[in-house]
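COURSE: Structural Biology Practicum
ASSIGNMENT: Worksheet 4, Part C
STUDENT ID: 0417
INSTRUCTIONS: Below are two proteins. For each, the amino acid sequence is given first, followed by its structure token string. Answer the questions at the end about the second protein only.

PROTEIN I
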Amino acid sequence: MPDTVWDLDGEQLALKKRVRTSAEAEVRPGAAQRDQSGEFPEELVKQLQRMGVFSLPFPTRMGGGGRDLASYLVAVEELARVDASLTIILLSKQPTSTSSRPDRCVLI
């Protein structure tokens, strides 16, 4: 069975590999313990922010990563493989902008 149901370009494949490698090394260890304890993985969230995962699908002019939605979903899928709870945090903390300040994205 293929690893994905759509064709990924070179940048998307590189992103997939980078996020998977990081997730396996730094997210998977302790995922079950965090799930049982209900601990909020603050340091992992900060790491994802530093990696730019939260802002991947937003334009660079707004402080985003300038990537398409498929690239963002590749990252989400790779995180979900090892820690579904962290993925929910990622999806719930999406950057947004208002019509009064479309030049800026902020985490809500």
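PROTEIN II
(use this one for the questions)
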Amino acid sequence: GKGAGRGPYPGGRLSVLPEDSAYADPHAEMMRQQKLEQLRQAVRSDDPNAIKGRLESTSALALQGEEDLDLAGHKLWALEARPAAQADLRRAVANGDRQALEAAVEAAVAAGVGVQ
């Protein structure tokens, strides 16, 4: 018959190549390190848009679980949460609501709001 002796999946064994070769290929490893360094620079810049762009770029390389990605994700969340946390803090202070103030302080600390 047609295609006899090839097994049920023509070319099936090739599907493992991209995954395996990504680690064996020095060029791929160099690209990976370069992307991670760009991500670190974005995190140091405190620019949410730069961090977002780098996270999208590095996620295309499937670098999940990297410490740098976790750090960048947290930093991005903190930068975006900060203005809202500051506003909540001011509102709670203005209203003199102790419970709201405690919650707002916790949220502000989590988002890394600096104490002025």
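ANSWER KEY EXCERPT:
Q1: Confidence is low (pLDDT under 50) at residues 11-22.
Q2: The chain has one domain: 17-110.
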